[in-house]
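Memo subject: From amino acid sequence to discrete backbone structure tokens
Keywords: amino acid chain, backbone geometry, structure tokens, three-dimensional fold.
Body of memo: The sequence and its backbone structure tokens, given next.
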Amino acid sequence: MLLGYAAIGAGAVSMIGLHVAAGLDPLHTVISEYAFEPDGWLLPTSLTLFAVGATAFAVLLARRGEDRKAALLVGVWGLCMLLVGAFPTDRPGVPLSMSGGIHRYAAFAAFLAMPVAGLILARRHEGRPYARAVKALSLASLGVLVLVVVPYAVRMLGLEPAGVPTGAIQRLVVVSEVAVLAMLGLVLGSGPVRGRGRPVRAAGGAAGEAAGEAAGGAAGGAAGGAVAERRGASLRAERLQRHGRSRARGTVGAAGAPGATLRPRRDASGDDRHAVRIEEFV
């Protein structure tokens, strides 16, 4: 990511230096015509540096796996910047050549690719602080791009647009798209996001939490079972003790003394037919 920012910064410095050194009218002179000035070599240098920065960001986006469409568009933008710098435009008043055609259509493809990439990233990262800024810059770039295309369409009809600040409009597009490119660093530094900016809990973390809850429930159940078992044993012992005491009291009350022998009681005649056993009353 540092390589990307370094390349974008160096490209911006080269572009500003070209404008200062050339001294042309920035309102009506398009950037491509700066290539014919003595310091015109700064133009392909600046565009190449922009391409390096875009390629670095595109590679990082592709590695994340979830922003591959945006990464492809950013890579296309970088490739188009290389083509724009390698194939200069035609001088004013000269018919369109192959070099001028490549330069023109590569620039148009680049101007279209970056705003679409910005809109994709802004939607995916909706809710983040920078998402609105990326979306606003991308929409502004698309709106200004329409104004850039209009003069070319008028020229194709054989008319010459008068009073249109073509240079200023083109520079607005370039500045807004380089700003979108620079803000990709915020996307890369925010981490992967799914579901419109809501963080997703890792599957391993969820499984760990479920396993922890299951283990805690099993341990709690085992502890509860042990406590219940001890209580049951205590109750059984207490019941047995009470039962033993009850039997002992019954034996003492019937015989008058512990260990007494129970014998039948005879009547005065000595006949034991009507004898009554004490055990019947116990």
